[in-house]
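Moderator note: this is an archived Q&A kept for reference. The question asked for a predicted structure of one protein chain; the sequence and the answer are reproduced below.
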Amino acid sequence: MAATPPSKRSKSKMTTFADMLHPMSTEAFFKTHFEKQFLHVKQDRDLTGLFSWNELLTTLKNHSLAFEQDINACSYDGEVKHSLNPCCGGGGCQATPAAADADVVAKLFQDKGATVQFHQPQRYSKPLQELVYNLEQEFGCLVGTNLYVTPADCQGLAPHHDDIEAFVLQLEGSKKWRLYKPLEVSSLSTTRW
């Protein structure tokens, strides 16, 4: 299935949980899906306004960020996950992590097929700040974000499951996702605080 070209997608902003779920209501989500089963919502929107690969490179050029603390580069060969983070001093990163330079990150991505993980990108993006704030208001707890960028035909992480409620937004490109039933269904109350 081909992705809809950005020019044909709606440019509507995504700033609230209701925007993420549309056309499903938040009430229906909490009743039928939250902590029970996955939900796939196909959005016909251009979400590149939340964050983009180019915005990541610009952020790296304009701010002092470090590998391991802010950025991770890794690959997965079908059996083992490999860290591709450059280390300071050539002897490992026991002391100070290496600076996450935009050119180094781009080279790892292009030449090594690295998946680039950016921790808490909302620190540098007003649209993401607004979305995170609204999610925190909706759920009554802190919300964290990570951005993952993977080159075509590459993989950075082994197949896995998260032991938290996670919301995945595909911002650019395309990816084939496999969704599975949860390992166990929570018996916790789904009453919103």
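Archived answer notes: Confidence is low (pLDDT under 50) at residues 1-11, 188-193.
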